[in-house]
Design brief:
By secondary structure, the chain is α+β, with helices and mostly antiparallel strands. The chain contains three helices and four strands.
Length: 87
């Protein structure tokens, strides 16, 4: 299973909400705990962030595949976690 990469910025309200939904979904669905998530602050790890093709945060990648970019809903976050479990 690939590691799920979660690109974010501090003080980004959309990123903060995505992080809350990640936690909620993992509590609601214990199978999501199997997903390895690496949270990457693009300002602190800019060299790594620059290797990926995206413009907005939050953004999720599974390997080289972009699963979502920009403001999300809880359902979008659920689909990201589901996809990460599958692949």
């Amino acid at each position: 299973m690939h590691q799920l990469l979660f690109f974010h910025q501090q003080k980004c309200p959309y990123c903060e909400q995505a992080a809350i939904w990640l936690e909620e979904l993992m509590e609601e669905n214990p199978e999501f705990a199997a997903v390895s998530i690496r949270k990457i602050d693009e300002n602190k790890e800019s060299e790594l962030a620059d290797r990926y093709d995206y413009w907005k945060v939050p953004t999720f990648f599974l390997g080289e595949e972009k699963l979502h970019e920009g403001a999300a809903t809880k359902e979008i976050i659920r689909s990201v976690l589901t996809r990460a479990l599958e692949g």
